[in-house]
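seq as requested:
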Amino acid sequence: MLSKSLLAGIIGAALLGAPANALAAPRVVATIAPVHSITSIVMQGIAEPTLLMRPGASPHEYALRPSEAEAIDQADVVVWVGEQLEGFMARPIAALAAEAVLVTLAEVPGLQVHEVRADENWSAGPGHDHGHDRHGASSQHSIGSHDSPGHHDHRAGIDPHLWLDPVNGKVWANAIADALATADPANAAAYRENAAIAQRRTEAIEAEIRKIVAPVRERPYVVFHDAYRYFEERFGTNAIGSVSLGDAQKPGAAHVQRLRDEMRNEGVVCIFTEPQFEPRLVSILTEDTAIEVGVLDPLGASLAPGADLYPSLLLDLARSLRDCLAS
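struct tokens:
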């Protein structure tokens, strides 16, 4: 377990090493809690970003409140994953002020990227698709270059749950720091130092996760929806299918029966629900079986927003897997 003293030391270093210049700090909005958390780490000692989405809400079916739309309208910097995840952002982004900076994290160069996984390809298992690097696309758009999210058809096949690979989290910290340095040159050095601290913190957590999941890596399990490929590929865990075929898609009876058969054939040990979704189908799948039920939370719905959320989210995923699969 990552020690509290190590976490406290890392956070303390960020606070001591970042000279405050709150008057010059830009107004920053981040869409989902993991993105907000990484942004908060990068901005520590300078200002607090605004978390756009309500905790526990799914970005796949989100509707903005008037106050949230106003926060976007007044932002100097908006940080989001991209159209595949936050489709509700299409109109607000199109209406951003020309001088605002838009950080589209799915387009950041250097990411490990996986395609959306077809149901029939799950049998390949983790490790068969090592992903590919994202190169060439800019992470920032400013002064009249706010493309409509619908414009990027070439990215339609990208799995958008990129933050569940901590290597991508480290890449994002640098990209966010660069964007903030552009918007707020007076604090550029502090943003970049905080990003370096975030990277060291994430590396320590990645090593801890490997230790946590090592005893249960080979044990087969099923997730509620296909959101965890980045985590599976990074740490080599053995997910064999999902209850839902995709984000915001409800499975039909044929899929449920096929998955139930596969769970029996593969010797599935555990099936995981999520805080954001109705677990009724999980009860159907586990009826008259010895399969355990756990909870995975890819958005940190149960965690307090802020700098600690992203590392806690990753560690909680690992511990939830271990606890259910070891039972």
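Residues 108 and 139 are 5 Å apart (CA to CA).
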